[in-house]
């Protein structure tokens, strides 16, 4: 009787859980999976944004073939990969070092912890607008400081192809490094103090403790951060749009920026959807790689 009552209770709990999950699953199915399926289907057609009532021309794989013959797409991929590599590396390294410093100082810098999180909780568009004024060649604070300290003349940070991509990356690093700090600092506070004390008793120095205890304990969290930030950086749009709109030329063109221009400036929706699908597949492959690495680390 007890076993039957327990099994009924479990069945009831499962049914209740499914009932609560059902609205979310329906929402995901309609607004995400169906949207992706429709986007994939329409990527085989050639149609303009304002030709919704007209028959669309089936072109098969032409849109996908065109992608790999598109020089601008190649440059957008290159710029996106540079942004992903540089921003991911610097945000992870800086975030880890700052989080380690805060963790080592314990509660003495709570105000500093709050200040460090301010860029992350500010909207990307607002952050980009602030930095656009900082980068202004004539009236920007950055050029003002450089002019009055080391005598460097006015630099068009966003208007020069040699500095525009770097300037965009600086903004993203400034805004999103606090995300890494927050996650890693929270994870560090969960590391057992007994491990640290035992290592100190054995004569281990601080950096040896970091290398042998803290870093191994943080590896699953680091993989999570790398996955989330990689996905975000592959989709970077608002910062680029406000700062440069992909210019000058195509020096800051990213995958999302180029897809937007194709769809809403050139009105080639079929080609834009093909670009979106290719980007989605790329993100999914990278996500699978990170997830497999995370499983190996857990094992």
Automatic annotation (TrEMBL):
Its Gene Ontology cellular component terms are: plasma membrane
Database matches in PROSITE patterns: ABC_TM1
Q: What is this protein called?
A: Sugar ABC transporter permease
Q: Name one GO biological process term.
A: transmembrane transport
Q: Which Pfam families match?
A: BPD_transp_1
Compartment annotation: Cell membrane
Instruction: Give the primary localization class.
Output: membrane
ABC transmembrane type-1 domain: which residues? 77-290
**What is the topology of this protein in the membrane according to its UniProt annotation?**
Multi-pass membrane protein
Q: Which family does it belong to?
A: Belongs to the binding-protein-dependent transport system permease family.
Alphabetical UniProt keywords: Cell membrane, Membrane, Transmembrane, Transmembrane helix, Transport
Q: Where are the transmembrane segments?
A: 20-44, 81-103, 115-134, 173-192, 213-231, 269-291
């Amino acid at each position: 009787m007890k076993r039957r009552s327990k099994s009924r209770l479990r069945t009831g709990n499962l049914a209740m859980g499914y009932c609560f999950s059902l609205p979310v699953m329906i929402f995901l199915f309609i607004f995400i999976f169906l949207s992706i399926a429709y986007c994939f289907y329409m990527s085989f057609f050639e149609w303009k944004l304002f030709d919704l009532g007209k028959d669309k021309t089936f072109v098969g794989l032409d849109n996908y073939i065109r992608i790999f013959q598109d020089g601008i797409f190649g440059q957008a991929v290159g710029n996106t990969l540079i942004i992903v590599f540089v921003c991911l590396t610097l945000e992870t390294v800086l975030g880890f070092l700052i989080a380690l410093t805060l963790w080592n100082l314990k509660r003495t810098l709570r105000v500093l912890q709050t200040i460090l999180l301010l860029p992350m909780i500010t909207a990307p568009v607002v952050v980009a607008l602030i930095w656009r004024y900082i980068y202004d060649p004539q009236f920007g604070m950055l050029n003002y400081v450089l002019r009055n300290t080391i005598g460097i003349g006015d630099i068009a940070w966003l208007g020069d192809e040699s500095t525009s991509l770097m300037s965009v990356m600086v903004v993203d690093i400034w805004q999103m490094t606090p995300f890494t700090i927050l996650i890693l600092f929270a994870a560090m506070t969960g590391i057992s103090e007994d491990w640290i004390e035992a290592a100190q008793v054995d004569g281990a120095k601080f950096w040896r403790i970091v290398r042998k205890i803290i870093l191994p304990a943080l590896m699953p969290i680091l993989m999570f951060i790398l996955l989330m930030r990689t996905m975000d950086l592959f989709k970077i749009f608002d910062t680029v749009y406000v700062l440069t709109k992909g210019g000058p030329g195509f020096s800051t063109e990213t995958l999302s920026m180029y897809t937007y221009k194709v769809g809403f400036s050139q009105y080639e929706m079929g080609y834009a959807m093909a670009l979106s699908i290719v980007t989605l597949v790329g993100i999914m492959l990278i996500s699978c790689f990170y997830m497999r690495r995370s499983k190996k680390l857990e094992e």
